[in-house]
Amino acid sequence: MGLETKLFEGEVDDSFICKLCQKVFLNPVSCSCKHMFCNNCMMKRLQYEKLKHCPICKTKFTGKLAQPSNEFKLQLLQLRINCSNKCGKSVLLGELPDHVSEMCPHTPIKCPNYGKGCRKTIRRCDIKHHLKECDFREVVCEACGHTTIFRDLFTHQSRTKCLEKKLKQQIIREFRNTTREVRRHKSLLTKQHVKRDILLRRQELEHSRNLQSSRLSTSRKFGSLESLANSNGNISTGVFLTENVLQKYYKPANGHSGSSVISDTTSLGSRAPLPSRAGHNVFECIRCKKLFKPQNNHENACSWHQGPVSSKYFFYFT
Fold it and tell me: Cα(251)–Cα(318) distance, rounded to whole angstroms?
């Protein structure tokens, strides 16, 4: 059987057409009468028909087939033919075997894993994609590094349980990393809290110093009033201001009269409390810094809360 004439570019001369199959010669041979035929065509005739004469000129066939001349072969091999695999390329007839076996991307070939059990035939252009999905490709176990074919990987992992061991190790490793990160975060938060506490303490110290300085300035201011009262001789020992001075600098609240307030103040200790910012008639002891109300002063109270109140710091803030 020869080659189809439609595969060739242009018209093919009749001298290259086999008279038996009406196709272009493939491995031509000649009879003693110099008529040429395809080798396969002549073999079939000899096998089934017991050919005794030339199919064209009826010359007696001797049974011997000869090769055509080299000049005829060269002319035949110079014909241009399109690739039979429909790859879109046209080559010389003499280069067609090399093109099909080595270069044509549509040539069907066996899988490279044929020796391992794969029996598929794939086009050359699809071989890379097939090798990525072939069941007989070599793979390495991600758990233990054992090399095997893909179809046996699951069996290997189920027998050795290497994947479970690796997953356990990975979980332990992640847990340790998480614990380490938590400790680092806690340490960072602790450092930030310490810095913030130090800053707050500094601010409190600075605020207390400002308060002390303001108290000193207030004591100096009212100290002049005390000296003024003593110079007039209106109060006895242990009392710093007279009733007139208290009425001048103290404003009664909540319906109390000035005389009742003065009597309450003279009944307190000789140490003067500071007026509190918390509300009316609440004072702060100079010594122990505790808050108290004059009406709640009693024998069991702090010794610094007993006796008359010094009007030096007794001033009502509205």
Answer: 9
Residue 307 vs residues 217, 219, 291, 317: alpha-carbon distances, Å = 25, 20, 16, 22
**Residue pair 216/279 in contact by the 8 Å Cβ criterion:** no
Residue 36 confidence (pLDDT) above 50: yes
pLDDT in the model for residue 7: 86
C-alpha to C-alpha distance for 26 and 309, rounded to whole angstroms = 136
Indicate the pLDDT class of residue 261, thresholds 50, 70 and 90.
very low
Secondary structure string (H, E, C) spanning the chain: CCECHHHECCCCCHHHECCCCCCECCCEEECCCCCEEEHHHHHHHHHHCCCCECCCCCCECCCCCECCCHHHHHHHHCCEEECCCCCCCEEEHHHHHHHHHHHCCCCEEECCCHHHCCCCEEEHHHHHHHHHHCCCCEEECCCCCCEEEHHHHHHHHHHHCHHHHHHHHHHHHHHHHHHHHHHHHHHHHHHHHHHHHHHHHHHHHHHHHHHHHHHHHHHHHHHHHHHHHHHHCCCCCCCCCCHHHHHHHCCCCCCCCHHHHHHHHHCEECCCCEECCCCCCCEECCCCCCEECHHHCCCCCCHHHECCCCCCCCCCCC
Q: pLDDT digits over 123-171, tens only?
A: 999 999 999 999 999 999 988 889 999 999 999 988 989 888 888 999 9
Separation CA 84–CA 112 (nearest Å): 24
Which residue in 216, 222, 220, 209 sits closest to 315, CA to CA? 222
Distance from C-alpha of 203 to C-alpha of 303, rounded to nearest angstrom: 32
Q: Which pair of structure tokens corresponds to residue 69? A: 């001349």
Q: How many other C-beta atoms are found inside a 10 Å radius of the C-beta of residue 222?
A: 20
Please give the Cα distance from 184 to 188 (Å, whole number): 6
